[in-house]
Amino acid sequence: MSAKALHRIAITAFIGLVVLMTSWLLWLHPPADALMPIALITLLGPLALTARGVLYGRRYTVAWSAIFVLIYFIHGVTYAAVPGPERWLGVLEIALAVVYFTAALMYLRQAGSARQGSRGQTAP
Length: 124
Hints:
The protein is elongated and about 50 Å long. The relative contact order is 0.16. The chain is built from four helices and no strands. The protein starts with a helix and ends with a helix. The chain is mainly α.
């Protein structure tokens, strides 16, 4: 699979995570009013900080966001283990986090090897 296709998959999962977390916090299962600012900062902050770099395919930012996405994986696992209506939100969050993590790492590998290949070629 090409680096461009992997980047598109990663972007789709990233945007899906942003939409899921925003709707989760504001409409689907909002926290208590006193915890809302903390939840918004901790759950949407890392996504907001890395959004521009991920959308433009900056390898360094994609690498860091792949590490940050593990926060959402853990968050999803905790909600998937709890019985109740928010269980499906946790399962969806896990799926999006795994897709993004996998696509981001594969994209970094493809983009890195393409970059190495272009460096290795010299003009005769």
